[in-house]
Amino acid sequence: MKNLLTALFLSIGLFTYAQEPPRGVVVNGEGTVRVTPDQVLIKVKVEHDGTSAEEVKAETDTDVNNVLTFLKKQKIDDKYVQTEYIRLDKRFDYNTKTYKFYANQSISIKLVDIKDYETVISGLLKSGINGIDGIEFLSSKLADYQSEARTKAIKDAKQKAEEYATALGQKIGKAVFVSESGSSNIQPMYKTMMMDAEASSSGNKQTIAIGEMEVEARVNVTFALYE
To answer: How confident is the model at residue 17 (pLDDT cuts 50, 70, 90)?
Structure first.
């Protein structure tokens, strides 16, 4: 009975301790790194419609084969080319009172050099794609930029803590608790930038604005306070 009461009191004490607010100053820190993308992910599709499932599937397969052949000629590594989906649908056309078949396939292509975009898009259109689902800008050094953003977030948190401590006539001690507020975010920036000055001066067309990406990190830090 005595052991049971002792265990109960210990449990209550631990629970009470866990519910106590942190002793010190708790601050949020934010870090942002602006990056010019050097890679791009392109999502394209091939689609056909007709009265025969075999026909529309065969037409789509032919165009997809042409697309993949073109990408191999461009020496794009197979690991950067991926089929996103393959669909074959049968739909009723209420105007003609007949059924039609729709076949489509989506392919994503990662370009490790963003300067290849214009050449690759032009070749894809000639190879048979008839739709672009979108593009996504990337960075080959994303992990490094995320680490830099985290470091900036910690420094931001420490600066805030020092300002609070100074206002209180105290000093901050060591950090006693650190947590990341969500994963590092990547935000596009819409500042237009020229892809290539030489390409521009030579009259070549530019069809995308690279802009910038914002790599963000947020942390919560608890610092000890001293008189």
So the answer is: very low
pTM, to two decimals: 0.73
Q: Which of 128, 95, 107, 104 is nearest to 53 (CA)?
A: 104
Contact 191, 174 (CB under 8 A): no
- In this prediction, residue 118 has a pLDDT band, given cuts at 50, 70 and 90, of very high
**Looking at this protein, which amino acid is placed at residue 221?**
V
DSSP notation for the chain? -HHHHHHHHHHHHHHHHHHSPPSSEEEEEEEEEEE---EEEEEEEEEEEES-HHHHHHHHHHHHHHHHHHHHHTT--GGGEEEEEEEEEEEEETTTTEEEEEEEEEEEEEESSGGGHHHHHHHHHHHT--EEEEEEEE-TTHHHHHHHHHHHHHHHHHHHHHHHHHHTT-EEEEEEEEEESSSPEEEEE-----S-HHHHHTT--------EEEEEEEEEEEEEEE-
In the predicted structure, residue 50 carries a pLDDT above the cut 80: yes
Q: Which is nearest to 89 in space by CA: 129, 120, 56, 114?
A: 56
Taken in order 196, 200, 202, 205, the sign of the CA dihedral is positive
Angle 117-127/53-73 helices, nearest 10 degrees? 150
